[in-house]
Design a protein that fits this description.
Elements lengths: L5 E4 L15 H12 L3 E5 L12 H5 L4 E4 L4 E4 L2 E5 L4 H14 L2 E5 L4 E3 L5 H11 L4 E2 L9 E5 L3 H9 L4 E5 L4 E6 L4 H12 L6 E5 L5 H6 L2 E5 L4 H6 L2 E3 L6 H8 L9
Parallel strand pairs: 1-2, 1-12, 2-3, 7-8, 12-13, 13-14
Antiparallel strand pairs: 3-4, 4-5, 6-7, 6-9, 9-11, 10-11
């Protein structure tokens, strides 16, 4: 019998293909096989809880064993919060004040919702909707407990101002215009570690799959780190293996290469 593993999947561009807004059938079948074999199958995403609401039916109905949300700041297993590490209130307040002073937009996520702290441009709205098929509400920040921030920094002065505060949080640069912010020291590997401790699964028995720069630490920490062929070069450099693109049945091919999709003999 195969040793039980804890397997964590990023969502965007790993399981979920934005071009078709679908999870490839081969990936769906792979997840079911892994689950049937008794492995823990979990999600590790920078999305907040609200941002998974409009994902395809398969995602909403599949019995995932755990969810790592907000880039590692929040971990939920069997409906129970096993890890929660929000950004320090003082830090969020500083960033909100900075955004108002320099006129850039913040998206902040709480336990139940995500919000823009002000009205946003059509460019930002269209980009967000393309990824998530939903839209944050517009509401001024009122000292809510915040797990994840996205800063839309379209000007050099915005970027420089955020970098001046960087010793207070973990900054992930997705592009020159989008920065992700979590509590200091918090990335997906923190949530993965919390789930594995809860399940009593050693880290050497973990498999993590991702494509982005925010997956790097998770891929480095995993017993086996798998980067998508369509992924960021930094994710590929951190991984133990690189599978084909998401739309080329990459998930299925990765686990076939690991010998984990073969039917066990009675």
């Amino acid at each position: 019998m195969m040793k039980k593993k804890a397997i964590f999947f990023d969502i965007d561009s790993t399981l979920y293909a934005h071009r078709m807004h679908e999870i490839p059938l081969s990936a769906q079948q792979t997840l079911w096989k892994l689950k049937k074999q008794g492995h823990y199958v979990a999600i590790a995403t920078s999305r907040c809880r609200y941002e998974i609401a409009n994902l395809p039916k398969f995602f909403r109905e599949f019995p995932f064993d755990g969810y790592i949300f907000d880039g590692g700041a929040l971990a939920i297993v069997n409906g129970n919060v096993i890890h929660a590490q929000p950004i320090a209130l003082e830090t969020v307040q500083k960033l909100v004040q900075l955004s108002r002073k320099l006129d850039f937009v913040l998206r902040y996520s709480t336990f139940d919702e995500d919000y823009y702290d002000r009205r946003v441009s059509h460019k930002v709205r269209d980009s967000f909707f393309h990824l998530y098929l939903n839209m944050p509400l517009v509401k001024e920040y009122e000292n809510e407990e915040t797990f994840n921030l996205l800063a839309y920094v379209h000007d050099k002065k915005h970027r420089m101002a955020i970098h001046e505060l960087e010793d207070e949080f973990l900054l992930t640069k997705h592009s020159d215009e989008v920065y992700e912010i979590t509590a200091k020291g918090v990335d997906k590997s923190v949530g993965v570690n919390a789930a594995c401790s809860y399940w009593q699964i050693p880290l050497q028995d973990t498999i993590c799959v991702g494509d982005g720069v925010n997956d790097v630490r998770m891929l480095e920490m995993a017993g086996i780190g798998i980067a998508m062929g369509n992924g960021d070069e930094r994710a590929k450099a951190a991984a133990d293996m690189i599978c084909p693109d998401i739309e080329e049945n990459g998930i299925q091919q990765a686990f076939e290469a690991l010998g984990m999709l073969e039917e066990e003999k009675e």
